[in-house]
């Protein structure tokens, strides 16, 4: 791991000045940190400022007074402390009433989107961190009719309204930790990409270790950490929940000087996770391969069919079964399963909540969607037609021309982008025997929550909250289905649902998520 201490200037001790290196090595001034990157990873309870915020919740505005600790380095030897720092927020008064947080759960809310770098270093209060440089190309807009937001926990939408889980948690009386993390676009003066995989998950694990190492100093119950993330951040939240204390990350964490503590978490929340990248292209073609591009053009049918065939083999090999006794989840049964377990209930919930006149107008505008005896009625083909154009081309993730963010994610050294699936590598090179670079299998293993779940990794989280918009074609809906099914089969408590007619980044149940967190405070869970 490349060490960039030459561009990091640290003052020592509480009250000392801290300068952070920006993307081009320029200094970014921030407030004093509670710990230092020179060896002291002790949280300083006294190094806070008092802030106020008015936060909109489903039951009205909440006026919150809170303590705020900013830009705390969470490793001893940061590669880039501008990203490897975290913020802590502790509510002390809500609507004029004092709040006790000694036993409060901790929401560990990342703002990572597109596997881009995320920094909290210049945030002026809770919810101020996020992707550096804005969302990646293609993530800021949405096809007509979709509710969509740039990825990141501070950019989720609920029917067009911004929702921050970090802010909602603060207003509900929980302690909030917001970690920064390196991302795929970061380069040093020599052109070395120092935020590519597995940097982001290593950083998040190091931040969890910092929190847990400071039990009794950092506010809240450090044994009950609930992670939250959206899109790539959702995938990383799932990975964090699945891989707690895995030895596969030990060398990277040691190189950073991470705290000697557990990086396992109590619960994981994942919204539209861009996960299982090893198999994401084949899953995407199974789900959205028949849908046209926004231009109206169809993708290469031969390549699409080859990926669909590969998905059938992969899915069969997982040996998963659907919930409520559905039976085996295969390429042949998965459409029916998504309808029964997720899509019809989501549509039914949405339609039932509409006034009768609005529901009639909706059904008239969407003839493929039926309503009978208080229930939504439609088939898989009608659903696909209802969604309309697919969001991504072919392949959706491992682009033949190495142009995707995921190609960049698996870059190495001064190489910006690489192929990470044999299918795309062989198609692009014309070599049917081409093999992935020797380091990639291990890197892919550390970036995918599914193997940890399938092997029943002992450090995995016990409680899971998974959400995705039904019109989210940023990845296959089978990704959420597989995560939920694999977790449930191995004894996890899983609450997985879809939001009808919502696109990428939707969070239409922030209040429900807060109530779910509250239920986790029960000592019996």
Report what the structure shows.
With 525 residues, the protein is an alpha/beta fold. The chain has a domain at 5-271: 3-Layer(aba) Sandwich (Rossmann fold). Helices cover 29% and strands 19% of the residues. It contains 15 helices and 21 strands. The chain has helices at 165-171, 199-213, 232-242, 250-256, 280-288, 301-318, 334-353, 356-365, 380-387, 405-409, 422-429, 440-446, 449-454, 478-489, 510-520, and strands at residues 9-10, 18-21, 27-30, 49-57, 60-73, 85-94, 97-98, 106-109, 118-119, 130-131, 156-158, 161-163, 175-179, 225-230, 267-271, 321-322, 327-328, 370-372, 375-377, 463-469, 493-499. The strands form 6 sheets. Strands 4, 5, 6, 7, 8, 13, 14, 15, 20 and 21 form a 10-stranded mixed β-sheet that branches. It has a 3-stranded antiparallel β-sheet with strand order 1-2-3, with no helix packed on it. It has a two-stranded antiparallel sheet with strand order 9-10. Helix 5 crosses helix 6 (301-318). The longest helix is centred in the middle third of the chain and has 20 residues, at 334-353. It starts with 8 loop residues before the first strand and ends in a 5-residue tail after the last helix. The model is unreliable at 1-37 and 133-155 (pLDDT under 50).
Describe the structure concisely for a colleague:
The chain is α/β, with parallel strands linked by helices and 525 residues long.
Short key terms for the protein model shown above:
single chain, 525 residues, Rossmann fold, three-stranded antiparallel beta sheet, globular
């Amino acid at each position: 791991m490349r060490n960039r201490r030459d561009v990091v200037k640290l003052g020592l001790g509480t009250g000392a000045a801290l300068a952070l290196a920006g993307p081009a090595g320029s200094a970014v001034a921030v407030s004093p940190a509670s710990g230092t990157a020179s060896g002291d990873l002790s949280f300083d309870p006294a190094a806070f400022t008092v802030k106020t915020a008015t936060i909109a919740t489903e039951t009205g505005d909440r006026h919150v007074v809170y303590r705020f600790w900013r830009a705390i380095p969470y490793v001893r030897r940061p590669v880039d402390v501008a990203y490897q720092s975290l913020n802590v927020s502790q509510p002390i008064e809500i609507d004029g009433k004092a709040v006790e947080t000694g036993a409060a759960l901790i929401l560990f809310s990342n703002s990572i989107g597109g596997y881009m770098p995320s920094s909290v270093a210049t945030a002026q209060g809770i919810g101020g961190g996020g992707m550096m440089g804005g969302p990646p190309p293609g993530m800021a807009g949405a096809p007509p009719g979709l509710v969509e937001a740039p990825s990141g926990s501070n950019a989720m939408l609920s029917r067009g309204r911004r929702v921050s889980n970090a802010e909602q948690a603060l207003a509900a009386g929980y302690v909030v930790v917001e970690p920064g993390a390196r991302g795929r676009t970061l380069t040093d003066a020599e052109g070395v990409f120092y935020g590519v995989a597995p940097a982001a998950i290593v950083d998040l694990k190091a931040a969890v270790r910092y929190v847990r190492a400071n039990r009794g100093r950092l506010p809240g119950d450090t044994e009950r950490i609930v992670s939250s993330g959206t899109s790539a951040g959702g995938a990383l939240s799932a990975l964090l929940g699945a891989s707690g204390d895995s030895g596969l990350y030990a060398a990277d964490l040691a190189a950073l000087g991470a705290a000697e503590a557990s990086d396992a978490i109590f619960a994981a929340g994942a919204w539209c996770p861009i996960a299982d990248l090893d198999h994401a292209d084949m899953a995407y073609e199974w789900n959205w391969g028949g849908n046209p591009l926004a231009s109206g053009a169809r993708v290469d049918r031969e390549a699409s069919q080859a990926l669909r065939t590969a998905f059938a083999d992969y899915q069969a090999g997982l040996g998963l079964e659907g919930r409520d006794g559905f039976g085996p989840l295969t390429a042949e049964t998965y459409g029916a399963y998504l309808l029964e377990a997720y899509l019809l209930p989501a549509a039914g919930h949405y339609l039932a909540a509409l006034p009768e006149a609005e529901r009639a107008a909706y059904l008239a505008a969407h003839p493929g969607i039926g309503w009978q005896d208080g229930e939504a009625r439609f088939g898989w083909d009608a659903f696909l037609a209802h969604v309309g154009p697919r969001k991504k081309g072919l392949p959706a993730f491992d682009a033949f021309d190495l142009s995707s963010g995921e190609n960049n994610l698996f870059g190495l050294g001064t190489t910006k982008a690489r192929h990470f699936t044999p299918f795309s590598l062989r198609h692009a090179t014309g070599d049917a025997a081409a093999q992935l670079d020797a380091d990639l299998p291990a890197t892919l293993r550390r970036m995918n929550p599914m193997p940890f779940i399938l092997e029943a990794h002992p450090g995995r989280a016990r409680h899971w909250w998974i959400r995705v918009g039904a019109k989210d074609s940023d990845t296959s809906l089978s990704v959420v289905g597989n995560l939920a099914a694999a977790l449930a089969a191995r004894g996890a408590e899983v609450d997985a649902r879809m939001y009808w007619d919502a696109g990428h980044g939707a969070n239409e149940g922030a209040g429900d998520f807060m109530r779910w967190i509250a239920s986790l405070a029960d000592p019996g869970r």
